[in-house]
Amino acid sequence: MGLKDLLGLKESDEKKLREGLAQLRALNDHLSSTYSLRSDLRDLTDNRHTVSSLLQGELDKIKAHQQSLINKTNELSQLKAKLDESLIAIEKIQSVLANDENGSSIYSRISVHDKFHRTLILSGFCLLKIAKISLNSSFFPKPIKR
């Protein structure tokens, strides 16, 4: 039982109806694929924005960590320079204590009382230098200002 018997159509009308249905089916398939493609493109665009914002957040974290490392490197360089200064001062003190060509130290010609005072003063200066380095270092917490 065909469309001709069901609807009571002529053979030519049935043929036109079948062609119209075929065209309608083709148009439906075309429109379905177009809207499906549009939906897929919309999803891709939304996902692109999401990934972009996630990557930007990670990039900001990396830049902040990089800046932190640069700051720490600068602090360590300053601390190294101060330690180098301290080493030079220690070498000067050692040269004063070293023996001269005759085997006697310049330091040995100074009285015990003077030696005591010099040692006391030098140790005080060394302690002050160490305290200054320690207080300026970021490795120790800063005092809370009230």
Count of separate structural domains: 1
Topology, number of strands? 0
Q: What is the H/E string?
A: HHH
Helix share, percent: over 70%
**For this entry, what is the oligomeric state of its chains?**
single chain
CA radius of gyration is 45 Å
Mean pLDDT, as a whole number?
A: 77
Structural class: mainly alpha
Can you tag this structure with a few keywords?
146 residues, mainly alpha, 80% helix, 0% strand, rod-shaped
Commentary on this structure:
This protein has 146 residues and is an all-alpha fold. It contains 3 helices and no strands. The protein is rod-shaped. The relative contact order is 0.05.
Structure at a glance:
Helix content is 80%, strand content 0%.
Topology of this protein?
Elements: H1 3-7, H2 11-97, H3 112-136
